[in-house]
Amino acid sequence: MKKGGLYLKNSNIHQMTLCTLFAALIVVGTFIRIPVPMVPFTLQFLFTMLAGLLLGGRLGAVSVGVYIIMGLVGLPVFTEGGGIGYLLRPTFGYLIGFAIAAYVTGKMAEKEENSSYRRLLGANFTGLAIVYGCGMVYFYLISRFYLENPIGLWPLFLYCFLLAVPGDILLCVLAAFLTKRLRPVLKGR
Predict the structure, then answer these.
(1) Conformational region of residue 38, where left means phi above 0, alpha means psi within -120 to 50, and beta covers everything else
(2) Distance CA 49, CA 101 (A)
(3) Cβ neighbours of residue 49 under 8 Å, at least 6 residues apart?
(4) What pLDDT, on a 0 to 100 scale, did the predictor assign at position 35?
(5) Residue 57 φ then ψ, to 5°
(6) Which residues lie closer than 8 Å to 30 by C-beta, 6 or more apart?
(7) What would the DSSP string read from start to end of 144-169?
(8) Maximum CA extent, the chain
(9) How far is residue 140's CA from residue 160's CA, in Å, rounded to a whole number?
(10) Among 18, 42, 149, 154, whose Cα sits 20 to 30 Å from the Cα of 56?
(11) Among residues 122, 56, 138, 42, which one has the least CA distance to residue 90?
């Protein structure tokens, strides 16, 4: 690694390219959806977990952050459009959870060079808990205090967790499988 040399410059370009690629994949994942009441099921979760697992905590969170910024400045990259007003939508908490989860799963996966399926699944399930925790708390707070239309705890649990989580559990398994296959390719650049 030469200081100020071409290698470091290309490494930064490579990292920026991967972050941009994952931000774009998250956008694509937004539009691959299965209708579920209240919180739509999309492939965003898969790509946010892969960003953390493959790029590491910091770059994974940057990728998700780029996606969130794109939506907040008005690009219609969220499931229901975009714009700064999206901050006041009950489902925005899931987006916050995506960024935190990408960071945490990435940090957990970084601990071992060649993480086992078990470790990757553990990281993904931790990320899943973060996403749903952030999403449900935000949904409850916005519904209660901003929309002044409080949601009960059972409907919150049913619509914001129980109906959506089975698909995301499958995405956790898929992300671990894909990470085991793709990591050697990314490391061997």
Answers:
(1) left
(2) 7
(3) 101, 102, 105, 124, 127, 171, 172, 175
(4) 75
(5) -60, -50
(6) 42, 43, 44, 77, 78, 79
(7) IIISS----HHHHHIIIIITTHHHHH
(8) 58
(9) 10
(10) 42
(11) 138
Name the DSSP letter for residue 115: -
Q: What average pLDDT values come out for the chain (189 residues) when binned by 10 residues?
A: 42 91 96 74 93 96 97 94 95 96 95 86 97 96 92 90 89 96 79
Q: Find tokens 């914001």 and name the residue.
A: 160
What is the sign of the dihedral through the CA atoms of 115, 182, 102 and 92?
negative
| Residue carrying the six token digits 């960003």 | 51
Tell whether the torsion through CA atoms of 123, 80, 143 and 145 is positive or negative.
positive
State the pTM of this model: 0.89
Given a contact cutoff of 8 angstroms between Cβ atoms, the answer to whether 154 and 175 are in contact is no
Give the C-alpha separation, 142 to 161, whole Å.
17
DSSP secondary structure string, 18-57? HHHHHHHHHHHHHHSEE--SSS-EESHHHHHHHHHHHH-H
